[in-house]
Records
---
Amino acid sequence: MLWYLIAVLSGFFFASADALSKKASPHVPALVLAWVREMYALPFLLPLLLFIEIPVLQPGFWPAMILCVTMDLITTFLYMKAIQLAPLSLTIPYLGLTPIFLLIIPTLVLGERLSSTGICGVLLVSAGTYALQIDRIRDGFWQPLLAIFRNRGSRYMVVVAICYAITATYGKVAIVKSSPLFMAIIYFSLLALAFTPIVLFRYRREPVVLVRFSGLKTGIGLAMACMAITHFSAIGRIPVAYMISIKRLSLLFAILFGWLLFRETHIRKRLLGGIIIIAGATCIAFG
């Protein structure tokens, strides 16, 4: 299944961008990192316009695109704040909650449906989310769940997971009304265009922040460009919930990056939670 491999690659590139963003976060403000993930991807994406066929845009493309861009302006900033405030292995796995919301949203918007066995996947995803904080169970059975709301990074990432379910769904609407690569290029261009004046105004007195650590930022941009190409290529072929569920293999990549690059602790416990979440996501996808 080619789409499966493309979706896995999308997850790998996404986790790579997260790891590089985490590495840059002590030196680069969250707002600048959010801008970097879009702007620094453009040098890798824009040249593709020379090699692809420009599609005829169908009605509904621009409303879907504007909705996605507006929501992503908020979620990208929250995403960067989350990985800045808390370990990768604690925050990124909460993206595994996205498939739960994808059981509903694509059905309403796109008419896509999953089988009833997806319920098993939802239960596994919920159990995996609980297991992420299993080390807190010594303080009470409900502590792992309450910990989600006590950790700001985790709270932000739960909001991001909900928003991603919406943008993934309407992103597919934009793909159907255009083409995968064209949509990816225009999407990132609009996000960069929207972020740039905000960032320039905020750091007008210290513009060096925008170019400092340029090598690391270029790596983030390359990873995000590869993620965009693989993400939109896969999601254009299959139901949204299927693709996003497989892409959530990025959770495992992120946990491993947290251990290898940042020496994060409690990895075994969080890896267990990540595996359970992925098992649930897989059940949702193939159910």
Note: The two ends are 16 Å apart (CA to CA).
---
Amino acid sequence: MLVINENEAIIFDSPANDESSEELIKYANKLTWSIKAVIATHFHEDCVGGLETFNKYKIPCYASNQTIELLKNKESKFSKILKGFDNTLTLHAGNKKVYAAYFGEGHTKDNIIGYFPEDKAVFGGCLIKAAGANKGNLEDANVIEWPETVSKLRQKYPQAQIVIPGHGKPGGAELFDYTIKLFE
């Protein structure tokens, strides 16, 4: 998810590689957007694979402390240390707040979500499934906790109008229900 306000941008999940991250940064620069931060939603490569490029441009990169620990265990090394947080993080894009929060285990034990109240938009990342999607990569999943975690998310943001999964097309709050049913 890319949150833009007053020409300032917050990105949830880097592209999966440095080349795609470079493209995104050049695109933002062309549109005169200042990228204020990138927030990785979990430790898998599709969320952190391009962080090194953001480091190269001196763009702050954030991840939960749990994600940082999992990356260390994978022996993932970055030229610049990721900025960590525990359960919640609040940043600003222009004069609007952007939130990142941990609700529990699901796709991974460290998956967080993003929320931009201005648009009532939730970035569920790989914790949320697109309509019609299958369960996907379960290598690091907690399929027992997954539906409960998404239920907490749905309860916290009942007004969500835009729900963005990690893969596939965005939808509305029905994606919460779809994901819950998929894992019950």
Note: The radius of gyration is 15 Å.
---
Amino acid sequence: MKPEIFGVSTYFTFWGVAAVFGIWTGLRLARRAGYPAGRSLAALGILAGALILGSKLLYLAEYVAFPADDPLPLGQDSLLAAFRHGFRLPGGMILLALLMPIVCRALRLPTWRFADTIIPCVGIAIMFIRIGCFFNGCCFGALTDGPLGVRFPPGSRAYEFQLLHQHIGWTAERALPMHPLQLYFAALGLLLYFCGRRWQQDTAFAGEVFTKCYLLFFGCTLLLEVVRPALLHLNVIVVPVAAASALLVLVVGRQGLRAPASATS
């Protein structure tokens, strides 16, 4: 497990691939909508960095507050090791949303119209990131006897997790079958892309597509969290709050459209 490409872990390689294809997809969407290429590319680069940074910060916060939630590889229990290893995508999505108005204003782009235009590209990035998680054997699901179960080999985080919890012994050739949660999240990334593109065809207010995509991401993430073998405390706090916030923005946005009609009647 944990294969390498030219000496680099596929996990980090796929994060790089996710950034490249995510930015490329976003730039194509922005160009089609008539936004300047240079400023769009700059915005996408900064927002990609926000996705990575926010994901890292939430993981580090989790390691400090709840180190037992997702133990580091055997023999690497330190903050420096934590910095080298994990990410938590909900944190990246939140930081991306917080920085969107700042970045767009600085680059003279219409904030929520631009956000509606490029948000599907985040789904492409998520898909590649989660494929990297699958090759790394991290972000795995609970034990299962179903047909989708995957048996991860020695060296993977899934195998080490089962060793730590005494599900298997040191002589086991592979881990017991587990839900490939990484691939479920990859499918969510694809769903985010296609739904975002569909919603772009009929928008009622600026920011609607962006908000719907966030509601889809955090709503589905909340459902998928139950497939994990162990509770991630920060995720179960952050994810429902973010989902509720997206729902509130969507409701308020739609009510704002009805207000003028009600006032004139």
Note: Residues 261-265 have pLDDT under 50 and may be disordered.
